[in-house]
Each structure stands twice: as C-alpha cells, then as structure tokens.
Amino acid sequence: MLRVTKLTDYATVVLTALAARPDTVLSAPELAEQAGLEVPTVAKVLKPLAAARLVEGFRGANGGYRLARPAAEITLVEIVEAMEGPLAMTECSIHEGQCGIEHSCGVRANWRRINDVVAEALAGITLAQMLQPPARLPRGRIPAQLAQA
C-alpha cells in the first residue's frame, strides 16, 4: 500500500491551520489545539517545514509560526518532499545504480512514469485547495501512459 507517513499527514493538517489564518502568527500550542494534535508532534513537524521554507518562525513573547508564502503557492508535493525527501515510488525512480537487476529490468521506465504522474498530481494541488470542502466527483482513474518496453 502506498501512503504518506503520519507525520506528513500531520504536517498538512498543521499547514492548513496556518493557511486558515494567514496573517496570524500562531504558537506551537495554538497550532496543536487547532489541529487536534499534541504539542511535541506539532513541534516535530514544524522543524522540517521551516527547513523547507514552507513556514517561518518568530522568536519571543509573541513568537510562533506562519506560512512563508501564500497557501495558493504551496503544493502538496512540496509538503511531502519536505517531510519525506524526494518523491520516489521505487528506489530506482530517482537513483540509478541502486538495484542489482537494473541492467535487465523491464519495468523501471514504467515506475519512473508512474512516479512522474504522482508527482505531477501532487504538484497540481495547493494548500489553499486543501482548505476547500471536497468536490463531489465520480470515482475514476488517473490516466497514465506507461512506457513501451
């Protein structure tokens, strides 16, 4: 099963709490309360988000965090990569020479294509869109053209 980690999910929840109040600096305890998370968990997700320049922190009595740029300019792929590193469906999707059967593998090109489709889908969704109620869409499939062997 492919899924993001809990911390990445929590990071998205924290970021949406910040996005809902874009002009306000919120402390980790305030964010924890709004997100329904524990303060240590919020502090843990804020570190990589700040390192990726998705949030900016302010010290002092009125310190806290806010988004580093508008929610409409922050994509889900940025959030996932801030928390988990480069998006890769398989190790060979981003690194060559990591697999013993790479020279004879017939599926590597297709995994790379799938990786690109997932990255493109996540890049097409912004944090601002995550604040909106989900649209009622018929369940469908994501079109993907696999490489020819």
- Which overall shape is indicated by the principal axes computed on the Cα atoms? elongated
Number of strands: 2
Strand content: 5-15%
The strands making up the biggest β-sheet line up spatially as 1-2
List low-pLDDT spans: none
Average of pLDDT? 86
Biggest sheet record: 2 strands, antiparallel
How would you describe this structure to a colleague?
With 149 residues, the chain is mainly alpha-helical. It has six helices and two strands; from the N terminus they run αααββααα. The chain has helices at residues 6-20, 28-35, 39-51, 76-84, 108-123, 127-130; strands at 55-58, 64-67. A two-stranded antiparallel ribbon has the order 1-2. Strand 1 (55-58) and strand 2 form a beta hairpin. It is elongated and about 60 Å long. It starts with 5 loop residues before the first helix and ends in a 19-residue tail after the last helix.
List the helices and strands and how they pair.
Elements (H helix, E strand, L loop, with lengths): L5 H15 L7 H8 L3 H13 L3 E4 L5 E4 L8 H9 L23 H16 L3 H4 L19
Antiparallel strand pairs: 1-2
Helix pairs in contact: 1-2, 1-3, 1-4, 2-3
Please summarize what this structure is.
The chain is mainly alpha-helical. It is 44% helix and 5% strand.
